[in-house]
Amino acid sequence: MIFKKASYDPFNYLLTSSFSLFKGRTFMTHATKAIYRWLLSDYVKVRYTKALVSIKLHFQFFLVYKEPFWCYHAGHVLGAAMFMIEIAGVKVGVLLYTGDFSRQEDRHLMAAEIPSVKPDILITESTYGTHIHEKREEREARFCNTVHDIVNREGRCLIPVFALGRAQELLQNLDFSLV
Question: Source organism's superkingdom (predicted)?
Answer without folding.
Answer: Eukaryota
